[in-house]
Amino acid sequence: PLKESFILQNHLLLIMENYFTKEEIEEILSNYNLGQFKSFGKIKKNDVVSFGQIIETTKGKFFMKVLRHFDDGIKQSLKVADILQKQNFPTYQTFSTKSNKLYLTYKNQQIIFYEFIPNLKESWKNLNLREINDFGKTLAKFHKMTKPLKIKPTNSGTYENIKSLIHKFFLKRKRFSSDIQNILEFMEKEIKLIECPKNQYSTGYYSEFNPGHIQFKNNEVRIVIDWNIGKTNSFFDYGSSMTACFSLDGNKFYPKKLKEFISAYDKERPLSNWEKKHLFEAFKFGILKYGIWGFIDLKTGDIVEKEKQIDQDELNKVKYLMNLDKISFNKMIE
After folding, report:
1. Tens-place pLDDT, residues 1-35
2. Which helix (DSSP H) or strand (DSSP E) does residue 61 occupy?
């Protein structure tokens, strides 16, 4: 889902050429040590958030991203991803400019050059048990590695952000059928019951550590993409990642996968007694987060106008949660 903080009020920014001219690319590349321009590659992305295209030079292929929204949170994410990549965390390389910056400001736009990853797909997949294991272990490694870093909190995808978004959409529930109204009322009630003490493990917050942002190879995490790092309790991060234990349509939940995820995470970064007692609450947060994102119209950033526009896959997970209690959940993961 498109994070609310990324929605641009000025959609005129979309009025832009599909790619830079050859002369502009050559000028851009003159700020890097990436070789001389050879050709334009495939346009991989073009939305209100960013424009992405493959660029080929005399030194190979690179992925260029032009950001249409840029703030301190994105600057921070670039820095964190660069630090972790240099410490062998599985993510792509970000190329610095000749002046040692991770982004270039060109004609009032921020440009980033990433390592080109062939066959990279940004779509969810059902993970097998071995993939789930490495998925949990890799998230725990991310939390351990970002724990000592100086990271500022950001708003996107945090508990406060999701609680606010649920309330905002709850107030607009009357446009939908009684069934959808009941779901929003449930979400409004349940999000208020979730809390994590400030003394629990606080670290880097990936927010969307999910199968759509990870590529696997031989059942192991090969690459993690789409960084937008903040800081909060890891409780909210691993809770969000637990949603990977559902089928793609959200109709089936796999307790065995969740047990594997929790076990792998716990072995890498041992959970506290409080965290172990509140796994259900973390699981609940993840479902509510992706559930409310399923109500977002990606063109406007506001709630959808029509019921048929709601993401049914995420809605199915919320419906599952509505019929689950903590005792039943704990029995499933014993």
Report:
1. 444 443 443 343 444 455 699 999 999 999 999 99
2. strand 60-67
**118/140 Cα distance (integer angstroms):** 26
Residues linked to residue 296 through DSSP beta bridges, in sequence order: 303
Q: For residue 175, which of 314, 315, 295 has the smallest C-alpha distance?
A: 295
Listed residue (85, 132, 146) closest to 241, CA to CA: 132
CA distance 273 to 279: 10
Rounded to two decimals, the pTM is 0.89
Please state, in angstroms and rounded to a whole number, the distance separating the CA atoms of residues 305 and 314: 17
The three-state secondary structure class of 241 is helix
Sign of CA dihedral 29, 61, 101, 231: positive
Structure tokens given for 233? 């309790």
Using alpha carbons, select from 278, 121, 295, 133 the residue that is nearest to residue 214.
121
Please name which of 7, 333, 38, 329 lies closest in space to residue 168, comparing C-alpha atoms: 7
Q: Tell me: the pLDDT tens digits for 187-234?
A: 999 999 999 999 999 999 998 999 999 999 999 999 998 888 999 999
Three-state secondary-structure class, residue 129: helix
